[in-house]
């Protein structure tokens, strides 16, 4: 009887393993059946008031990029430090779920690098979507809190592991191990980016050598001899290969022969290696963030990752207006690309707001205060985009052209140009009903969303939010939306 049960059990296990393999193969085939047509980059821009948020950029050829969302952030963190860096884009094998994961860090708030590394957040910030355009609220995922003495959790990445059917999340944490305190790369597993296994060391370089940035790319046909390749910033930009994500890795080489390092041998000192497979050919780009010179990303390319001598420099590339800092690239199917461009790729017209009773004057910002002036210089200080309202899409918000992500907002009934912080209070203060002009119905007036008895008006050339009770006030509160 025991022998029969054992035989039945073995048969059942074999059947389940076969079914699992069939499901994984079906998933792989389903995703491969839809050819990739474009690319989406997620990145941050730098240590500015709104630079440490999630920005999206798009490319058709993988080398020439266009800023999406009119150059403004696509996602804002309202949790943890309220700033994010080093975003990674993750797609489920079936292409039915997506995640953005990022470092919970905001240097622009005044945090020192020492505090960030030794007393920083041990959590990642996570957004989730089923379509790449409608995203959940951000949430914190504590990945490093169980590491003794963990000082941070930086530069996260994640990749689906077909060997186990879940995702491997890996990132850098500064902690003491075997008497040495430094950044090592740790990993954990997850199926839903909500619960994770206990963290374990993934990459530990000898001695006191830190390693912070590492990213893996898959080569399903094993061009160069391995299924997976990873590039790591560990003094050099080191390239390694492996046939399993958590197996042993073979060092292939580094980029020092190209005059590129992560500081150990000088030259062009870079970080944040970011892989991209070209859609139409067997070729990869490795993007490197030239943080030392502030020039942002540069690409090098290879058709065979089995040797670092195969990499070539590229001169014909363009990154758009925003500076691209440490991020990730996702290849897009035609359906995904259509959705992304439908949401983020529609550029709204550039407008100016002309005063009704001082028609040589236009609304402008100056040192983040807002007034009406004639002969505005630079002109962009008086250029805005009228966008769907932050608090109500049937209303409007007024976004700066030369400070994307900054909006006209009232505070104590005075107006400032301020970076959107994702809060409901800001959204309400920066939302208005565009109605027929109070002094002329062919012009426009802007009624406050959260103080409905008040309108935008100028007084002594300064923009205010006031009740309108006189003919002069009606003229002051009337503007022409013009190009």
TrEMBL record:
Transmembrane segments: none
InterPro entries linked to this entry: AbfB_ABD, AbfB_ABD_sf, GH43_arabinanases, Glyco_hydro_beta-prop_sf
GO molecular function: hydrolase activity
Signal peptide range: 1-26
Key words, A-Z: Hydrolase, Signal
CDD domains reported in the protein's UniProt record: beta-trefoil_ABD_ABFB, GH43_Bt3655-like
Domain Alpha-L-arabinofuranosidase B arabinose-binding: 352-481
Protein's name according to its UniProt entry: Glycoside hydrolase family 43 protein
Organism: Lentzea rhizosphaerae
